[in-house]
Specification:
This protein is mainly α and 94 residues long. Helix content is 63%, strand content 0%. It is built from 5 helices and no strands.
């Protein structure tokens, strides 16, 4: 093996910035954490995907996508889902 890996010892955030994907990676990570928290609340309250879908006026498959934070899941959609499990999403600029 020749040469040294230029990223060895560097921060993940530095690498993501170099690749030009830092902000999108952060946004996706936040969406996935929120989706996971919603899923955990559903589990605690015994709410199924089918029940959630009825309350959200959508399909069970769409609830599955929301809970995986796959595709174009909006803040509005996550907020609606959070409200149905008795939670709120709090966003702020820092």
């Amino acid at each position: 093996m020749s040469g040294k890996n230029e990223h060895c010892g560097s921060a993940l955030e530095d690498f993501l910035k170099e690749e030009g994907i830092c902000e999108s990676a952060k946004a996706e990570a936040v969406a996935r954490v929120i989706a996971w928290q919603i899923a955990e609340e559903m589990l605690k309250k015994g709410i199924t995907k089918t029940q959630m879908a009825k309350q959200m006026h959508t399909s069970r498959a769409q609830v599955g996508r929301i809970l995986k934070a796959k595709g174009n899941v909006t803040i509005e959609t996550l907020s609606r889902a959070a409200a149905l499990v008795g939670r709120k999403i709090h966003l702020e600029l820092i």
